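hey so i finally got around to running both of the ones u sent me last week. sorry it took forever, my laptop kept dying halfway thru and i had to restart like 3 times lol. anyway pasting them below in the order u listed, first the sequence line then the structure token line for each. didnt double check formatting much so if smth looks off just lmk and ill redo it

first one:
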Amino acid sequence: MKIRIFRGNSVLEVMREVKRVLGDDALILSVEECRDSQAGKVEILAAMDDGSDFALKDEWTSGRFPSEISFADRAVGKEIRQLRQELEALRRDLNRLYRTSHWEFALSSLVRQGVRKEVIEALVEGIKRGEVLGGTAGIQSGELVLLLLKELIATYVEVLPPIEELRGNPVFFVGPFGTGKTLALARLACVLGAKRREFGVGTLDPVAGKELLASYLEDVEVLELADLEELSRRLDSDREVLWLVDTPSFGLEDESGVGFVKGLLRRFPEGVVYLVLGLDLSREMVERTVRAIGVEGFTGYLFTKLDQGVGYGLIFNEVVLTRKPLSYFSMGKGVKDMEVATPGRIAELLLREDL
């Protein structure tokens, strides 16, 4: 029996090498995520039964095991061979079971998170294209399935750069009533302040925008902008200032409000529009909001109230179906409770259940 360690930058990459070197019948003994980036991000310990007595050699183990273990005693060798045959039969039986159960369990967890059927079907197609179903080495491990699925989910998620690195100006915060867009703006203003990036805060909401922002940002001047023309003049006067602009909340039946939002990127083609949506919204409400604005009407998503939703599938659905990037997540009521969205973080949220 040969045992060897394989390393690489992704599970799929390492599994393909396992299959190339050891064949389809290789047995995966362990899967680990490596902290040492120079050695690769993933390490898989795999074995192949070549009919020889059990031995571990330096070139297979890279020094992690004794250089060689041999069984000179024939009686012991016979028992080992018999045990190996029994283990091989058990491995084949378990492999048939796990090929189905691990993937079904992982994908069913996505269903429980609220991921839509068509999105899961897209993931399954991605799994098939990656040759990780039906005959590829390593499906014996639930841990391996989890890592593969995380990698696959991450490939479907695009993200915007952090706000301090944005090249667009101004940055608009738009969304329906009750999504927390004003608080989201205040949180990102705190981020810019901590990064020592020069910024300005303005509001186009004539009702309570200035008062609400001022209550969140006690040490920041909040300008009440009369209209987009005034904002344009502010931009022309100092291009180094990054403007964060709150906008009036809108209802889906409010044609003028929706039309105003849809026209922002036409008026400011170099700007950025964050569509702020709360995870407490229904799927229908989110989809209607996106349809009303149109994917061309905003730059990316900013999701709030992650602690109030029933599942994180809503986020993944929108990213996959609209192909629009994510920017930030927020939860809680604190001004500093903001998290940069990353593909890996989305995968972690969706697969919080252990396999």
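and the second one:
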Amino acid sequence: MYFTDKLQPRYSDYDRYNRLYPESILKLFEAVAEHHMHSIGDSVVKGDVSWLITDWHLEVERYPEREEELSAATWIRRSEKPYTMDRQFVMTAGDEQVICASLTFTLYDMQRKRLVRISDELLDAYAPEQEGVFDVKPPRLHEPEERLCELPLTIRRADLDFNDHVHNTHYLGYALEALPDEAYGNGEFSSIRVIYHAPLALDTRAVIRVSEIDGGYLCSIRSRDTLHTLIELKQAK
């Protein structure tokens, strides 16, 4: 089942060049996904059980500009995995397709600290489709040995969500802020991936490491021996 929604970005969702911030794109897609959930009687949090995102993948044809009329379609892609679902997104500006994205999310029991199997009843309510926005699964990300810099990460109370963990969209913001000035100033990243390994909390003493890779940057967020997140940012060649 395909679900379409009109997007309503705020003034603060655009940068100084009047383009949507990458982090704002994630937030807009999240809002559409939540509306889709509500339309079939589902929700992000149900008692002690909640949906948690494990990864994002965005491919950007171009960044929408202020005053453009934006809409997004979303749907669940059929999968045989019992504990995860794959959600697909397409953002359009007028009649032009500008961004494709996918995310993987899982049901998690916050009290018992374990995954919850997705019921056939819930899956049927979403009426999954065969279509996906990406034909090929991207390669697994690995943390590079060499790095450009390592910076301490400051976690704000405002970064936390309902389960006292840093909300998933902020990790991308952390990575963009850690980039060298020339990369941040020039960067319209055409490919963005965020892979979540372990959550960040307010008292986590973490660092963010930035490495150069072919076509862009790979940022890793770590605390001691724990890898929390990998964020890949690539520019169009």
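quick thing i noticed on the 2nd:
The CA atoms of residues 108 and 115 lie 4 Å apart.
anyway thats it, ttyl
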